[in-house]
Design goal:
The chain is an alpha+beta fold. The chain is built from 5 helices and 5 strands; from the N terminus they run αβββββαααα. A 5-stranded antiparallel β-sheet has the order 4-3-2-1-5.
């Protein structure tokens, strides 16, 4: 046989070998993680339940999901064993101490609009100028609102005059 005809088969077999090898590694890591579980550690099940390990048996795990709530799960149903910091952050909302030299993100956009020119003449001139946003005076707005309400009332009256009134006993279809 020609080596060029065997090449696709060799590549296919090598790809299958690599895929199964990586899957086996992940399964071994998951099994090792489940075997290293100890009572008191926080876990997340594959269903998304966060709980604390109460007791570890050979095939099952007893979890404490809250006051008076004990759940019995198969070991294979444990999706992840969480660190104490991560478990407390997710379940209790407790953040660990933040570093003091880390950048602080403001809660509002006020820091984005501040300028360095607060004392200069350009800043004083800018604060005195009014910006025209195309708004009308209050009197003009009031007149427009009255006209719009009158037009809407006239349109509603015209619609009711054109349509015949029906009662419960009258029906247009037979």
């Amino acid at each position: 046989m020609n080596t060029l005809t065997l090449l696709p088969f060799i590549v296919l077999i090598a790809a299958m070998f690599l895929m199964t090898r990586s899957a086996k590694k992940k399964q071994q890591q998951a099994a090792q993680m489940r075997n290293e579980m100890q009572p008191g550690s926080g876990v997340r099940t594959i269903g998304g339940i966060y709980a604390t390990v109460k007791e570890v048996n050979e095939e099952t795990v007893l979890l404490d999901a809250g006051p008076g709530v004990d759940l019995l799960f198969a070991k294979n149903a444990i999706g992840a064993v969480l660190s104490d910091d991560e478990y407390n952050r997710i379940v209790h909302g407790v953040e660990h101490d933040l570093k003091s030299d880390a950048a602080v993100v403001p809660d509002d956009a006020s820091s984005l609009t501040e300028t360095d020119e607060t004392d200069g003449p350009a800043a004083a001139a800018a604060s005195d100028d009014k910006i025209d946003l195309g708004k009308k005076d209050a009197a003009e707005r009031g007149d427009d609102a009255i006209r719009a309400a009158e037009d809407a009332a006239q349109a509603a009256e015209a619609r009711t005059d054109d349509e015949p009134k029906k009662t419960d006993g009258d029906s247009g279809t037979k």
